[in-house]
Specification:
Blueprint lengths: L1 H34 L2 H27 L7 H18 L3 H25 L5 H20 L1 H4 L5 E2 L17 H24 L1 H11 L1 H6 L4 H27 L1 E2 L1 H4 L2 H14 L6 H19 L7 H16 L4 H22 L1
Helix pairs in contact: 1-7, 2-7, 2-10, 2-12, 2-13, 3-4, 3-5, 3-10, 4-10, 7-8, 7-10, 8-10, 12-13, 13-14
Length: about 350
Amino acid sequence: MTKGKELFSHRINNNICKVVLLIVLLLVFILLPRFGGNFLTHVVLEMFFLAFLGQAWNIFSGYCGELSFGHATFFGVGAYTSSILLMRYGISPWIGMLVGGCFSALLGIGIAYISLRYNVKGVFFALATLACAELMRLLSLTLKSLTNGAEGILIPFKGENFAMFSFGVNKKYIYYYIILGMFILCSLVAYKVKKSRLGYHLSAIKGNYDAAKMLGINTLKCQIIAMGISTFLTAMGGTFYAQYYQHFEPDVLFSANRSFEIIFPVILGGGGYIAGPLVGAIILQGFEIITRELIPSFMYGVPKIVYGLILVIMMMFIPGGVVSSVYKRVSNIRLKRKEAQEGR
């Protein structure tokens, strides 16, 4: 009974510490635009943007282990859908965000069903999704009457009075709070999925696909649902990108670089973990700023090379991601302490 009470008390204290830490971090991020300048606000905004996209990708690839190299497809669909609805029909991007999310979810479900239904998995699934992104890039270049071709779409600024109905404002802190809210929402969705029956099924599929299927799990259904949620959220990120930068082109939205930018935070932070994308985004932004500031600007391309080398080294020595590595070490320490206490 005493050991049971101690264990229960230890868990309660851990949960309280986690809640307090989250509240403190949230307060810091909420107050950051007030005390930080525009540059710092922009840097942290970019960090949350990367973390948001990584979290969306994590819900599918991180949870079920099926790599997607083509999430730029859904990112671009979200950006184009909301922007076309705004420019042609005057529909608010808040509504266009949801419409684009629905289009992307349907497209993602279709791609996942066709591929996974006929056992296109692993490397072949990754290449299939990458090919879809390239196909969307070519289509957006071809359909000039709808997408404006290679010139892309320029969203005009409509003043602060338009802020009630659009993202069209000239203040970074408003965009900052929007992406902060989007990241929190995405993380809550990821947490709910992970702790739900669907999440446990996805974890089983990631661990051993054949064993999960033998246990009666509808593997195809679970993967399709995860893909739908993931692509819906990714499209929301595309809408935010379009409204924040107010100009985009097919080569920017649907490029392989865009897909890899979505993936990198999860790979560095740790796939399958809620904190993974945020930790990975912090590392990416930190390394990029450090290499850019320390290396002279006239040495064109060198910062990118150093930045890439640092990432490669990190992936070599921490293959499962930072959060995964920390989690394993903490688990090992707890296990050793438990064994030492039992030995007494």
